[in-house]
Each structure stands twice: as C-alpha cells, then as structure tokens.
Amino acid sequence: MEIIKDPKQIQDLTMQLRCSDKVVSFVPTMGYFHEGHLSLMRWARENSDIVFVSLFVNPTQFGPKEDFNRYPKDFERDKNLAEEVGVDYLFAPEKNDMYTDDHCTWVNSPKLSQYLCGKSRPGHFQGVCTIVLKLFNLINPHIAVFGEKDYQQLVIIKKMVEDLNIPVKIVGRPIVREPDGLAMSSRNAYLTEKERKEASQIYKGLQKAQKWVKKGLIDSESIISKLTECYMENIPSGEIDYIEIVDPDKLKPVQKIKDRAILAVAIYLGKARLIDNIMLEVKK
Ligand code: PAF
Q1: What is the pTM assigned to this prediction?
Q2: Which of 185, 217, 252, 258 could be joined to 212 by an S-S link, Cβ 3.0–4.6 Å?
Q3: What is the pLDDT of residues 3-27, one digit of tens each?
C-alpha cells in the first residue's frame, strides 16, 4: 500500500488511472478505523481493481464547540488495518494542503440539510459536501463507498452527485454493529463503561419501534413518544437530540408511515453524540 500526502501527486496519478481500463473505488474516512470502515474497504476491494482510502479529519464539518480537537487518531494502526484489507493507496493530506487560508468556495445542500443532524449541527453538511467534492476531484473514482450509519450524509452526497453531474457511483453499505447492537463509530471510544452499556439500548429501541410498526402502529408521533419513553428509562445518562421518522429520500418528516420510512436518532451520551437509524416498513 502506498501512502500519499500531496493532493497534486494523487490527482496526477488518478487522472491517469481514470483513463485506463481499471475500475477505481474510493472510501472517504476520518480515520480511527473500526469494522464499519473496514467493511467498506473490503467491499471496495471485492468490487473494483484499485482501492483508494482517504484519511482526513475535516475541520470544516465540525462546529466550534464540537470534538475536532479531540477526535480519536491512530495513524499507525489505521495504516496497518488498511494494508491488511488490501487498500492500494491511502491518501492522508495535511489540513493546510486541503484548505488554503483564503478558501472561500463551499458546496451547500440546504434543502436536505434542514432536517435531522443538520438542525443541531449547522454548517456540518456544507463542510461534508465541500470536502467530499474536493476528494472526488482529487481521487477521480468510478465508485465511492459510504456507510449507512450516516444516513443523511449518504442521501445528501447522492443528491450532490446527481445535481452536479459528478461522474461517480455512490454505494451505501449497511451499518456494522457491535455484538450488543451498538452501531460502530469512532466516537464510541469516548464512552465510559457505564455509558457504553446504556448505548446498546439505542439500537434495541430502534428494533422495538420496528416491531411496533410491524404490528400496525404507523403514526409517527405515537412511535416517537413511545421510543422517547423507552430511551429515558433505559439510557438515563443520555440526552435525546432528536428522534425523527422521515422519508428515506427527501428526509422530510412523515406523519404516517405509508410504505417505508427511516427512523433516525441522535443521542448525547457523555462526551459522545451517537447517531443510528433503521428502516421502518409497513406490512402490505
Ligand atoms: O463520514 C465521514 O467519515 C466523513 O463525514 C467524510 C465522508 C469522510 C467526510 O469528511
């Protein structure tokens, strides 16, 4: 595996590759790899000829009071894991090589960013869209792979690619979970032992909601209020940021589930803000 830090060097390489007959895939990450990241890399390995992974903790997607400065890092470990799963190129640029002091061009998706995480993290998706587009321009991939845990991010990136005619296919891959159901996240490292135990209740709550829907409860307000109660009882150290039931493509809250909807949650637990989601389907 080759490590490249210089954006110009990687762009020269990928422009040549794009004209070859090789299929290039790309997994953008902020590092501190867990099985979720590795599953995306494995999928990329199996479905393309050349696999690029980026490792860059993107400052512009963090709010001023968020965890940019303490975001977990372990470059040596990440490098070894990426190599083990067969990544060909690890792109790990420095902040100043990605953003000059006078950077002033941004990509925005206000319609889709007004919901869910966009409400409590103003500017977050502007930072995500901007860095992802910059990375696409540097890596020139045919395929880019994202995890479904960041469901809103996935929907926004898909729409950005469609709206801006970016020549890349976006692939979403399922959430990878710990044995007790907690969605894998680099931020799980912030949890104390007690918080970690409570965190497993996040997914258990989502599964309960899925059962309520299967039994015929389709009114979002009732589902959200039952789930709120369940979280308040089982995650006493947590603070709910949001519980929402939204259209899977438009992300707009739905009052009644007609066919399919996404139940998405964000919970502050200790130093972590954890997100998770599940598809709710109405039995026909
Ligand atoms: O999902 C992430 O890790 C980040 O938001 C991404 C896509 C790498 C952009 O910084």
Answers
A1: 0.98
A2: 217
A3: 999 999 999 999 999 999 999 999 9
Give per-residue pLDDT as tens, 268-278.
999 999 999 99
- Same domain? For 88 and 198 the reply is no
Which domain covers residue 142, as residue numbers?
2-173
Report the atom number in ligand 1 closest to the C-alpha of 29. Answer: 8
Mean pLDDT calculated for residue range 177-195: 98
Mean of per-residue pLDDT scores for the chain: 98
Give the binding-site residues of ligand 1, using a 6 Å CB cut-off: 28-30, 58, 61, 128, 131-132, 150, 153
CA–CA separation, 108 and 252 (whole Å): 17
Residues 124, 16 share a domain: yes
For ligand 1, the distance from its centroid to the CA atom of residue 95, given in whole angstroms, is 14
> Nearest C-alpha to atom 8 of ligand 1 is from which residue?
29
Whether 284 has a pLDDT exceeding 90, the answer reads no
CA-nearest residue for atom 7, ligand 1, is 28
Residues noted as catalytic: 37
